[in-house]
């Protein structure tokens, strides 16, 4: 059977998750990202080929003709309209199937079914960056930009922008040089990788004394809700740049001779994409390979645990006998565990939410919060620093699995089903504990 070939234009969390899901498949995957930084976020594997450079329409056409993918999967940012336009044109020109993995809109915008009209009190919609500038030039007060650096030069059109405008942008050399060249004050620019918690957004909005927040609908994975909620809590007006409307060209996407509705080519999560790839292009997911057990000393190693619920409590208790230095970061910790940890010199408790940089210097990290997005942020930070991380609710983000531990004296047994069957692991561990307690001597 022919190996399916896919070309993914990436640059978003959703794109990276889809690429990772295809790791255990029979597909050859070509990936295009815009920058070297984007390439660093994608873990390589055998049938994955990554190129880090921006392609124009003609280069896309040439690349499609060279690698002949079964389909092109567009996972670019919702606001990358020109890129999406070029991808669609290239697919039409080469009669190649097109699939759009579109990030869902935020829950706090009017085109979402769960939209709450009450949020409009402090929200102004703008069609684009230029429109936002026109709105702001009729206002007074400081402005906080959280809408990326791609169009930041547009905001130099704001009166007294050197004094009034504060911005948060990616920590990339070309972005830094761009901001400096445009005349923004160094003290007014924060170079940070998001998404960010509501608490951090509040702190930055307060520090800039902002009366206005300019942002885009980056969806849940882009931290959109946390930004809006921070602004609402502070009474700050939000200037929301609308998502570009779905391109007319999408109505003729897919093969060049098809004229189906755009919704037949647009999907909102990777599970829908994988189902289509399996149905239409013979994608096969290989069974999960077992992970090799490796026993190491944790004595005096720095382990950071994010979360304070029952799962986090079980894992902290499992770690305590191994003499590690454990830092627990959580707004709330189950009361009984808090009592157990009181006075333990090997444990540090920080009663707050995760913040960017918390993982730096750790030997192991456990992401066990009850917020999927926060767990993902922690995993991404660990990936950047090369820190082993176990993510409770996302096995594909784990670089190690936290095992069920059966222990008696110096006899230690670690159990995992390679992230597949936790109930089976739990039952097996219980049987082993019973066997060791009844039949094994220390």
TrEMBL record:
NAD among keywords: yes
Could you say which residues form the signal peptide? none
* Tree of life domain: Bacteria
UniProt cross-references to Gene3D superfamilies, sorted A to Z = NAD(P)-binding Rossmann-like Domain (3.40.50.720)
Q: What pathway does this protein act in? A: Cofactor biosynthesis; adenosylcobalamin biosynthesis; Porphyrin-containing compound metabolism; siroheme biosynthesis; sirohydrochlorin from precorrin-2: step 1/1
Reaction(s) catalysed by this chain's protein: precorrin-2 + NAD(+) = sirohydrochlorin + NADH + 2 H(+)
Stored InterPro entries: NAD(P)-bd_dom_sf, Precorrin-6x_reduct, Sirohaem_synthase_N
Question: Can you name this protein?
Answer: precorrin-2 dehydrogenase
Instruction: Report the EC code(s) recorded for this entry.
Output: 1.3.1.76
Broad class of enzyme this protein falls into: oxidoreductase
Keyword list (alphabetical) reads: Cobalamin biosynthesis, NAD, Oxidoreductase, Porphyrin biosynthesis
UniProt-listed SUPFAM superfamilies: NAD(P)-binding Rossmann-fold domains
């Amino acid at each position: 059977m022919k190996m399916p070939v896919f070309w993914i234009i990436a640059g978003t969390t959703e794109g990276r998750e889809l690429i990772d899901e295809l790791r255990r498949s029979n597909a050859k995957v070509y990936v295009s990202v815009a920058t070297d930084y984007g390439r660093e976020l994608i873990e390589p594997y055998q049938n994955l080929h990554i190129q880090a450079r921006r392609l124009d329409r003609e280069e896309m056409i040439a690349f499609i003709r060279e690698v002949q993918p079964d389909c092109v999967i567009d996972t670019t940012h919702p606001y990358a309209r020109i890129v999406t336009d070029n991808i669609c044109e290239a697919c039409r020109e080469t009669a190649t199937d097109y699939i759009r993995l579109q990030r869902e809109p935020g829950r706090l915008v009017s085109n979402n079914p769960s939209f709450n009209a009450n949020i409009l009190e402090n929200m102004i919609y703008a069609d684009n960056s230029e429109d936002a500038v026109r709105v702001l030039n009729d206002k007074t007060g400081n402005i906080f930009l959280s809408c990326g650096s791609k169009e930041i030069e547009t905001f130099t059109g704001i009166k007294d922008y050197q004094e009034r405008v504060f911005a948060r942008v990616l920590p990339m050399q070309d972005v830094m040089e761009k901001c400096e060249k445009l005349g923004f004050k160094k003290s007014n620019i924060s170079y940070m990788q998001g998404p960010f918690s509501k608490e951090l957004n509040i702190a930055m909005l307060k520090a800039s004394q902002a009366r206005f927040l300019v942002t885009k609908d980056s969806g849940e994975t882009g931290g959109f809700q946390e930004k809006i909620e921070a602004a609402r809590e502070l009474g700050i007006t939000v200037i929301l740049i609308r998502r570009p409307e779905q391109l007319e060209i999408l109505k003729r996407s897919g093969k060049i001779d098809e004229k189906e509705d755009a919704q037949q080519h647009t999907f909102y999560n990777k599970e829908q994409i994988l189902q289509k790839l399996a149905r239409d292009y013979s994608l096969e997911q290989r069974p999960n390979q077992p992970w090799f057990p490796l026993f190491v000393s944790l004595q005096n190693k720095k382990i950071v645990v994010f979360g304070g619920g029952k799962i986090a409590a079980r894992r902290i208790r499992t770690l305590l006998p191994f003499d590690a230095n454990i830092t627990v970061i959580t707004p709330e910790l189950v009361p009984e565990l808090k009592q157990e940890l009181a006075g333990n010199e090997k444990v540090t408790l920080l009663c707050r939410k995760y913040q960017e940089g918390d993982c730096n210097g750790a030997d192991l990290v456990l992401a066990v919060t009850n917020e999927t997005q926060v767990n993902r942020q922690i995993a991404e930070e660990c990936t950047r620093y090369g820190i082993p991380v176990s993510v409770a609710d996302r096995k594909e983000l784990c670089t190690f699995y936290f095992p069920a531990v059966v222990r008696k004296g110096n006899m230690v047994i670690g159990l995992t089903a390679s992230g597949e069957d936790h109930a089976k692991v739990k039952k097996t561990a219980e049987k082993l504990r019973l066997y060791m307690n009844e039949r094994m001597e220390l």
